[in-house]
Amino acid sequence: MPQPTPPSVLRRPRLWIGTGLIAAVVSMLFALLYVGGNVNPKGNLRDLPVALVNADSGADAGGRHVNLGDQVVAGIQKAAEGDKSFDWQVVSREEADKRLGRGKVFGALVIPKDFSATVTALASPQPAPQGKAATPPTLTVLTNQSAGSIGSSMSSQAAQKAAHAASAQIGQELLKQAAAQKAPLPTAAQLKLADPVTVTVADGHPVGSRSALGLSAFYYALVLVVCGMLGANLVNSQVDTALGYLHTDYGPVRKREPVQHTSRVRTLAVGMALMLGMALVMGTLVEVATVGILDMDASHLGLLWLYSVATIAVVGIGSLALFAAFGTPGMLLATIVFVAMAVPSSGATVPLQALPGFFRTLSEFEPLRQITEGMRAILYYGAQADAGLTRAWASMGIALVAALVFGFAVTRLYDRKGLHRIPSPADVSETAAPEATAPAAG
């Protein structure tokens, strides 16, 4: 007699409702996080650090000593009182170079030593010596792509705007002085005096041509995080397969190992040990692929290798702890923690100072920000500890301890309560014994 065809699983409301709810939450969450963090960087911009260097030594003009550099600085600071978008940090040129070389500022505006002298020479009635043209006054804007291309661009635009505003202000004063002289100036000379300052743009901390315009550190860090998550998923499935909890399909061939009853604590420990081995392999191959094959600009290769292996191991162990505590939903939770919330709060593309307050708060503990800053220190800043490397190592250590404590505490609790993933033979026999000894009815 033919067996009746079982109803299609597509007719089960729970399948549609459960899958639909998960898909809805994931799509909404990713859209809100990814787009929400980057949709309005200028509107969210607060206190973007920019160095302001005044090296002007001043000049004598009209019987008095003037320092136009001080006037430029005062004008910028006054304008900044009503606009909190930028944090203008008045420092020496040496200190500005240090901050650029550690990613502490996104750019700089430099007023040179001869600024006052070159400006006052334009208003001087004495012509320049024959055969020697007067040196035009110049302000230099320094960029810093290593700290982030968008932040560097914002800094450069602000510095150029401030420089042109200073040029216009100085030009008004020069035109007044020229008008006080008896001889009228030609139109071309008046136009030159109206905007006398030349603004030049230079790279304050150059990065290599094969550094993805200062984004290679972010891409490398993101690869490490993804490798850690994928490695954890692989380890989790392979351990379950080895214990006989899952079967493996090789095309039409199915293979399943005998079930080995073991505790959740031991299962997690096995997975973490395997993850450490996988981190060694994956971290090595990531560096070989990026530096050896793709010729990415990199130095401190030994430190880069150690950092890569450690990052993959910590992310992988953290993911395994979530898997052990929450089961299948733990995989979704790991994706949210290590990707959905981490990428927009990393400060790698849009600077932290241009993110909404919620994402700035996330950046204090989200791993990708710390990992990226450590990677920038290694790739761009000579592995300086105070360029973000110390914070990265410390954050990684805290995350590792937290993952170990959380993972083993939860799995130990499950074991003590008898919440085994597969009932042991002893549990099965205890449950079946009363049924076997029960008297027959009637």
TrEMBL record:
Gene3D superfamilies: abc type-2 transporter like domain (3.40.1710.10). It is found in: Cell membrane. GO terms for cellular component: plasma membrane. Keywords: Cell membrane, Membrane, Transmembrane, Transmembrane helix. Its main location: membrane. It is a multi-pass membrane protein. Signal peptide: none annotated. Pfam families: DUF3533 (PF12051). It comes from the Bacteria. Belongs to the ABC-2 integral membrane protein family. PANTHER family: DOXORUBICIN RESISTANCE ABC TRANSPORTER PERMEASE PROTEIN DRRB (PTHR43077:SF8), TRANSPORT PERMEASE YVFS-RELATED (PTHR43077). NCBIfam families: pip_yhgE_Nterm (TIGR03061). This is ABC-2 family transporter protein. The lineage of its organism: Bacteria, Bacillati, Actinomycetota, Actinomycetes, Kitasatosporales.
